[in-house]
Structures are given as structure tokens and as C-alpha cells.
Amino acid sequence: MEKLTIALGTTSEQKIKYLEKVLRELKIEAQLIPTKVTSGVSDQPKTTKETEQGSINRAKGAFGKIPEADFAIGIEVGYHKNNKDEYEMFCWVTIIDKNGYQLSSQSHKFLLPKYHQGLLNNDLYLGDNLDGYMSGEESTNHVKKQIDDIVRYRKPFIENALRSALIRYVQKEDFDANLPL
């Protein structure tokens, strides 16, 4: 496979780093062109549909700014209430290529602790209130520290959705029923 040019609908160093890691794992050579775009959804999407739409809008926005790219990627992290009325965190990634092919992939979901549930239920922005979860003696609790890292940096969700989307895109003939074998 020749080196790809990928327009990325974010300038987040964190998300760029996660994408570079997944590309290395999959042995995909690419030039990344991060670009500032808007998601067109709320800053803290609270439904799976809104989160997916944010990833689609980011991919479309990146492709619109970098039309010479082989494809564009949009990444959006969000939340939704499960059937027990509890918030879960996840990520959607969308890939759109220059031929109009589009696919979206959702990461696994993670049930948020009660502390984070309260923030979301009170319409508080999670990113501005993360420090309250780790306080006092609890800061020596290694499992709680792991939970804090997962929610704070979102790495498992973003990498999972990126990996799934890239695998499905690069090997689309193995996954897309509309393409010949």
C-alpha cells in the first residue's frame, strides 16, 4: 500500500497521537493533515446519534478543507444513557474518501462512575470537572486512578474506534456486502 494522505478533522494533539499509534500498529504509512473543523453538535454530545453525527461532520469538514486527501477522518467522543438510565462513554469515528465511500465505527462503551453520572445529569461539562473524582486518600487507589485516566484521556475509546474504522476501510472488500469479493 502506498503512503496515504489523511485529512483529520481535529487539531487535538491527543487524538493525533492516538491515530499515529493505530496507524503504526496496522503498518499503514500516512501523512496526516490535522485541520480545525466544527463538529456541528453540542460540546458534550449525549446521544449515540448526535455523537456519530459529530464524527461525520468532522470528516466532511476536514475533507472540504483538504480535498486532495485520500480520505478524511472524524473523531467524536460522547455519552448516552443505557437501558438502566445510566451514562456510558464511547467514541465514533467516521471515514469518508474521495470516491464518496463512507463508514462509521463505534467503540466499546464504558459505564461511568456515579461521580461522572452526577455531572452529566446536572448538565456540567465533564472535562471541566474531572479533578473532583480523585481526591484525598482515594488518589492512592490504583483502580480508581485507571478509571480517571480512561475518562480523562479517552484513549481506549478513541483507539478502539479508529482501529475498527481503519481495518474496515483498508480491507473494505472483506466487510462491505455491496463490494464484490
In short:
Pfam families: NTPase_I-T. The chain is an alpha/beta fold and 181 residues long. The protein is built from six helices and six strands; from the N terminus they run E-H-E-H-E-E-E-E-H-H-H-H.
3D architecture notes:
With 181 residues, this protein is α/β, with parallel strands linked by helices. The chain has a single domain, classed as Maf protein. The protein is 39% helix and 22% strand. The radius of gyration is 17 Å and the shape is elongated. The two termini are 19 Å apart.
Write the layout of secondary structure elements.
Elements: E1 4-8, H1 13-25, E2 30-34, H2 48-65, E3 71-81, E4 87-97, E5 102-106, E6 110-111, H3 114-121, H4 142-153, H5 155-170, H6 172-175
Parallel strand pairs: 1-2, 1-3
Antiparallel strand pairs: 3-4, 4-5, 4-6
EC number: 3.6.1.73
InterPro entries: ITPase-like_fam, NTPase/PRRC1, YjjX_NTPase
Cofactor: Mg(2+); Mn(2+)
